Amino acid sequence: MTLTEKYLKAVAAQLPAAGREDVIAELRDALMSRMEDREAELGRPLTEAEEEAVLREMGHPLAVAARFGAGPHHVVGPELYPWWLFGVKTALTVLAIITVIGAVVRVLVGDVDGAQAFGQAIHGLLWSGMMIVGFATVAGFIIERMKDKPAFLTEWRARDLGLFEMGLFSTAWVGKAADMVGGERADGTRDPVASWGQPAGMSPTARAVASGVAWGVFVLWWTGVIGQEIRPGVIGGELMVDGADWGLLLNETIAWIWWPMLAFGAARAAFHLMRAAMGSPVRLTAFGDVAFSAASLGFIGWFWLYSPMASAFAVDTVQGFTDRVRITFETGDMAAPSILMLMTAFVFLAEVFTLLGAAGRLVTGADRRR
Amino acid sequence: MGEGELFEAMRLELRRGSLVLAVLARLRTEQYGYSLRVALGQDGIEMEESTLYPLLRRLETQGLLTSEWREEDRRRKRFYRLSPLGETMLARLAEEWRGISASLERML
Questions:
Q1: For residue B69, how many other CB atoms are within 10 A of its CB?
Q2: Which of A165, A90, A88, A160 is nearest to A131 (CA)?
Q3: B57 vs A29: CB contact, 8 Å cut-off?
Q4: Which of A20, A45, A243, A294 would be a feasible disulfide site paired with A15, CB 3.0-4.6 Å?
């Protein structure tokens, strides 16, 4: 086999079957014509080295085949890249938050010491962070190759641009933090971008992407794919409160809700990403919010009334609730059962308000936040 | 990136859009890939084969060119020429090009 035939075979191997022969026949003619011209110049047949030089001028077979191939030649293209980066930043932010909370809880519970928790947190952040970048890249690869691009790419709005100010490593984020603590950054200037307060004014589509990514990270954490050291079953350890083994109760509760919570998280992530792809229509979003808030309320009700944890913190009557709140604030004794009770009550109330707001949007079809 | 490299990158960027116009213009008369490349080179438009051949396929897929395989010099070659749609497109693009060129001339 001549070098040219070898070269053409290498190109052919990378081409789709449809049209392969056609492309190779044309390339063969181009190479032969070139070599004949060169031979005419030299007045003799080409040596193997000269033949190879012509092939090298044509380009590497992989690169040549890629130029004939259909579809994008990038994993994440310039239009998708800002969204990819935003998704990664959001996911890493959520990961950092759950890692820190997990590490702090484990130290407080006492099943690891500070140094161990720090080491585990760094290890977890590194590996889980890499995994998140990998997942986001696979998602980007798929989106780039979709026939119909998602609405957030094709129908973007000026308001969506605010979302690029968000994220773990952006200057706006740093500026925002500086605004919160002292109003000025180290260099004494205010961040003009952050001071517009745009992150709060994210568009519905941007919020949908952020929510979808955040719930995606939650599902990965819940299933133990990321954050192994701080997975739900580990947090809690052997914490004893007033003679009750909270670690055991928490683990029993988690065992009960593991599958429902996984379904809930996955459904929520899928729903938010779907509405991001559809441009986040008001009624669809409201419908999802109503359904998820109702499910959350059901879960909180179960947690309060029937879960294994209920025996450790819940009270049966309104009188019991107010008494405990009063005692907590009078004595300043922030006992764990009281804190958990107040948090559960607060989350319940917040969900009620979310449900009412979403029901309103579902009926009217209008969203004041837009 | 040094000044030379920067210039080369910007020169390529500048040329990229005009290559389509050059190929369409040259294919008013029928050519096969290699002869087209030589003809473009003689007109001062150097084009790598790995750019030219995929471009010809794309333009044909877009309906701007037609092609047929024929034997010439004892070898089968693929001959391209402008389609009626390609002729219309070339006329419109040429007008656009002249407009841009005139504007730039005034500025430069």
A1: 13
A2: A88
A3: no
A4: A20
Tell me the chain B residues in contact with residue A27 when contact means C-beta distances shorter than 8 Å. Answer: 49, 53
CA distance B84 to chain A (A): 24
| Paired tokens of B49 | 């084969």
Euclidean distance between CA atoms A269 and A82, whole angstroms: 20
In the chain, the amino acid numbered A50 is E
Would you put residue A360 in left (φ > 0), alpha (ψ -120 to 50) or beta? alpha
Indicate yes or no: CB of A58 within 8 angstroms of CB of B33: no
Give the residue ranges of DSSP H helices in chain A.
3-14, 20-42, 48-58, 61-68, 81-109, 114-144, 151-154, 171-181, 204-222, 246-277, 282-305, 310-313, 318-331, 336-364
Does residue A188 come out as left (phi exceeding 0), alpha (psi in the -120 to 50 range) or beta?
left
Number of Cα atoms under 13 Å in the Cβ half of residue B15: 13
pLDDT, tens only, A53-64: 999 988 889 888
Q: Please list every residue in chain B whose beta carbon sits closer than 8 Å to the beta carbon of residue A65.
A: none
Answer yes or no: are the C-beta atoms of A94 and A217 closer than 8 Å. Answer: yes
Q: Does A23 touch chain B (CB under 8 A)?
A: yes
- CATH code of domain B3-107: 1.10.10.10
Interface of B with A (CB under 8 A): 32-35, 37, 48-51, 53-54, 57, 69, 75-78
Position A57: which residue type? E
User: Which residues make beta-bridge pairs with B70?
Assistant: B77
Let me know: does B68 contact B79? Beta carbons within 8 Å: yes
Residue with the bigger pLDDT between A312 and B25: it is: B25
How is residue A106 written in tokens? Answer: 């484990």
What percent of chain A shows pLDDT beyond 90?
A: 18
Q: What are A115's two structure tokens?
A: 């140094």
A312 closest CA partner among A337, A333, A331, A330: A337
Please give the helix or strand (H or E) that residue B22 lies within, else none.
helix B3-26
Question: Taking a C-beta distance cutoff of 8 angstroms, is the pair A203, A83 a contact?
Answer: no
A99 CB-contact burial (10 Å; exposed 0-12 / middle 13-18 / buried 19+) = buried
> Of all helices (H) and strands (E), which one includes residue B16?
helix B3-26
Report yes or no: B69 and B77 within 8 Å, Cβ to Cβ.
yes
Taking CA atoms, A190 is separated from A103, A165, A171, A181, A218, in Å, by 33, 15, 11, 12, 34
Euclidean distance between the first and the last CA atom of chain A, given in angstroms as a whole number? 67
